[in-house]
Amino acid sequence: MTEVDLIKYPLNQAYITDCIFNNMHLINIEMYSSTICSSSFVFANLENADFYKADVSYANFTNANLQNTRFAKSDCIETIFNSANLSDAKLVAALFDNADFRNANLQHADVSESTFENVLLKGAKLTGVRGLEEAFIKSINIGTPEQPNILIGGEARKWLEVMSN
Questions:
Q1: CA torsion sign, 121 to 124 to 126 to 131?
Q2: pLDDT of residue 76
Q3: What pTM was computed for the model?
Q4: What value does the mean pLDDT of the chain take?
Q5: What whole-number distance in Å separates Cα of residue 151 and Cα of residue 69?
Q6: Are residues 49 and 66 in contact, defined by beta-carbon separation less than 8 angstroms?
Q7: CA angle 75–78–83, rounded 5-degree value
């Protein structure tokens, strides 16, 4: 997909799996209700993109610019957001199961009603994260995959609240 100017095409409700979007400029792209599992968006610029109700499971957003992007009601199972910029993102009512947010910027992101289970957060910037009181925090890993430091339930929520202040 890196050779195609996708800005011209509607990608909502698309079924695009295992595709490469690395280094692409997809500002304001609409991919709501799409299935983009196992696709790669490494170093892509997706500022203001819309992934509402999208299935982005197993996708790789390493070092992507996801500022002000909407992942509301999205499925993010084993999705990689390592070192991604998710500042001001709308992550409302999303499922984050085994997602990797290591070194990601989540400043001022809204996580209201989202579910976090076994989510990697080592090195993540969490200042100003909103909606934690309404999120379903099952477990987080503040260590590494090799040396996990798992926090569960209330302990995980308390850690997140401290880090968001």
A1: negative
A2: 98
A3: 0.94
A4: 95
A5: 27
A6: yes
A7: 105
